[in-house]
Amino acid sequence: MSAVIFILIVLATFCAMEAVTWLTHRYVMHGFLWYLHRDHHQPHGGFFEKNDAFFLIFAIPSWLCIMLGLQNKVYWVAAIGFGVAMYGLAYFIVHEVIIHQRFKWFTRSNNTYIRTIRWAHKMHHKHQGKEEGESFGMLLVARKYWLKARRDKKNKLPQL
Predict the structure, then answer these.
(1) Nearest to 118 by CA among 130, 101, 143
(2) Could you tell me how many helices (H) and strands (E) the chain has, helices first?
(3) Could you say which of 38, 58, 83, 129 has the lowest number of CB atoms within 10 Å?
(4) Inter-residue contact 125 to 41 (CB < 8 Å)
(5) CA separation (Å) from 78 to 11, 21, 50, 68?
(6) Cα dihedral sign for 108, 30, 88, 141?
(7) Cβ neighbours, 10 Å, residue 159
(8) What is the DSSP string of 48-107?
(9) What is the signed CA dihedral for 37, 113, 46, 24, rounded to 10 degrees?
């Protein structure tokens, strides 16, 4: 397998993971695995959440694809694993560091994209139950959130 094909598979997997994340968030986390995701929507004490178990739900298949793909020289499988792992890293940075600020690595930003994803996520979290909800994605958000972020930035409203 050529390096170009490998990289294309990694990038295609990364992009496909946004749809997988949306579907998983909407129908699994807000569905039959709500008991793991609930504490992410409702106030609780402590740093860790049951919701953090979803890290393993995605990390284990990624690791297995990478390990088994490389061991058996089935490089397209390893490329899928790397794509999932890259999306996991992006998820960690965007969701845990930028949006929820569980790690205080970055200060508030006036960047329109960051304002947009933070607003979309805030709208997602305004629903504390599993039935109602909006904005289940992470990296791609609806146009209405972009419009709101641009309007707030233009009116010099502070970052959330």
Answers:
(1) 101
(2) 6, 0
(3) 129
(4) yes
(5) 12, 20, 29, 7
(6) negative
(7) 15
(8) --GGGHHHHHHHHHHHHHHHHHHHTT-HHHHHHHHHHHHHHHHHIIIIIIIIS-SS--S-
(9) 10
Check if the beta carbon of residue 137 is closer than 8 Å to that of residue 21.
yes
Taking the CA atoms of 130, 136, 142 and 145 in sequence, report the sign of the dihedral they define. Answer: positive
Neighbours of 151 (CB within 10 A): 10
pLDDT, one tens digit per residue, over 104-157 is 887 677 888 998 998 899 888 887 778 778 888 889 999 999 988 888 888 877
21, two tokens: 């994340």
Mean pLDDT, to the nearest integer, of 96-100? 88
Q: What is the pLDDT of residues 127-142, one digit of tens each?
A: 777 877 888 888 999 9
